């Protein structure tokens, strides 16, 4: 069966060259994932008979994969940090570099147990569930504009280890679901691909993953702008905003965080040296800007007083902090 699947994948015009050239490995991954075993364990069971129902599930997953559907949707599972999450076409497949977002959020609050962590745009729940299971928060709030995504994320709670923090799932856009919430850390991996960049995306992303999870208006900046404009009102005085960023717009996003009055703004790189995570600390200035968003004078003041901070931040940006997170591949695949 493995050979048949490998040949099916190798001959599929819907798969990219790289996958077709590595069809044997891809077939092993697919079969192992459906059987819920490590690929290395396959060799031990290859000569054992496979029950009909299992065989049917493997063949159905292989047919879907041969049509170009991402592996995680075909098998229904995606690994993220210590968790294995159920995923389907309602949610973005969690990417390795998003693990850095979790790692940084946990690091920033490590010395202060308790408080609330918020995950905006939770998708499969990857970030929120990781914070709930690995952190020492009193509670986690997970939001999404997509109620389909919230259904997937809340079903994944059954995969959490006991002792994890409770998670409150809320529907709504940007910061709207956070009425009454003051968080120690707000984390988000928002949609950040510009609409005009769609054609350059790999087909496996553009044709299969939800557009709501990928694209944002204003050249990909709309969700960052919304979060930077209002996050201060929902953060503790020295709380942190942690955002996954598109490396092409990382510097711009950092400048906008400064202009909004955030402090200690820093970009964290993945292991390939790409700026992928923005850290920004709340400050009284940020909260003043939040409350005066419509006043032209405030905008001018924000821009000019931010300039004084820019040199400090520029130094951080030119010498970004490498993360100890896993090798990134998200940008290349998105
Ligand atoms: C890039 S995906 C991230 C999913 C998940 N957090 C992860 O890292 O794998 C972005 C998520 O944000 C949601 N989203 C899009 N626009 C939103 C908005 N305005 N407010 C809240 N969530 C939004 C999408 O439905 C999607 O689940």
List strands and helices in order, with pairings.
Layout: H1 2-10, H2 17-21, H3 23-35, H4 42-45, H5 52-66, H6 71-75, E1 77-80, E2 83-86, H7 98-108, E3 116-120, H8 126-134, E4 139-144, H9 147-155, E5 167-171, E6 183-188, H10 203-206, H11 211-214, H12 222-230, E7 235-244, H13 250-259, E8 263-269, E9 275-281, H14 284-291, H15 296-318, E10 321-322, H16 330-333
Parallel strand pairs: 3-4, 3-6, 4-5, 6-7, 8-10
Antiparallel strand pairs: 1-2, 7-9, 8-9
Please give a quick description of this structure:
The chain has 334 residues and is α/β, with parallel strands linked by helices.
3D architecture notes:
By secondary structure, the chain is of the alpha/beta class. The chain folds into two domains: 74 residues, Helicase, Ruva Protein, domain 3, CATH 1.10.8; 244 residues, 3-Layer(aba) Sandwich (Rossmann fold), CATH 3.40.50.150. The strands form two sheets. Strands 5-4-3-6-7-9-8-10 form an eight-stranded mixed β-sheet, with helices on both faces. Strand 4, helix 9 and strand 5 form a beta-alpha-beta unit. The site of S-adenosylmethionine has 24 residues, from helix 8, strand 4 and helix 11.
Features:
Helicase, Ruva Protein, domain 3, two-stranded antiparallel ribbon, binds S-adenosylmethionine, 17% strand, Rossmann fold, 334 residues, 8-stranded mixed β-sheet
């Amino acid at each position: 069966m493995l050979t048949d699947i490998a040949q099916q994948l190798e001959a599929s015009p819907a798969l990219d060259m790289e996958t077709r050239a590595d069809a044997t490995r891809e077939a092993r991954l697919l079969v192992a994932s459906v059987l819920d075993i490590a690929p290395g364990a396959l060799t031990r069971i290859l000569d054992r008979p496979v029950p009909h129902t299992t065989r049917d599930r493997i063949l159905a997953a292989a047919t879907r994969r041969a049509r170009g559907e991402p592996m995680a949707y075909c098998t229904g599972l995606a690994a993220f940090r210590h968790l294995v999450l159920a995923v389907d076409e309602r949610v973005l497949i969690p990417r390795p570099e998003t693990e850095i977002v979790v790692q940084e959020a946990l690091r920033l609050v490590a010395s202060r147990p308790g408080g609330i962590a918020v995950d905006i745009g939770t998708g499969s729940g990857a970030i929120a569930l990781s914070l709930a299971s690995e952190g020492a928060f009193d509670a986690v709030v997970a939001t999404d504009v997509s109620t389909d995504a919230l259904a997937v994320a809340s079903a994944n709670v059954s995969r959490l280890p006991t002792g994890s923090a409770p998670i409150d799932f809320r529907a709504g856009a940007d910061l709207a679901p956070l009425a009454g919430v003051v968080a120690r850390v707000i984390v988000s991996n928002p949609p950040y691909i510009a609409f005009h960049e769609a054609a350059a995306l790999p087909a496996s992303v553009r044709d299969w993953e939800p557009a709501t999870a990928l694209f944002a208006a204003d050249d990909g900046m709309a969700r960052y702008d919304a979060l930077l404009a209002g996050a201060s009102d929902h953060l503790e005085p020295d709380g942190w905003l942690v955002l996954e960023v598109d490396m092409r717009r990382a510097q711009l996003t950092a400048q906008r965080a400064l202009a909004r009055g955030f402090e200690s703004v820093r970009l964290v790189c993945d292991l390939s040296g790409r700026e992928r995570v923005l850290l920004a600390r709340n400050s009284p200035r940020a909260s003043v800007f939040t409350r005066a968003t419509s006043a032209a004078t405030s905008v001018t003041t924000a821009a000019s007083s931010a300039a004084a901070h820019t040199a400090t931040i520029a130094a951080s940006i030119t010498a970004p902090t490498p993360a100890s997170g896993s090798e990134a591949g998200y940008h290349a695949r998105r």
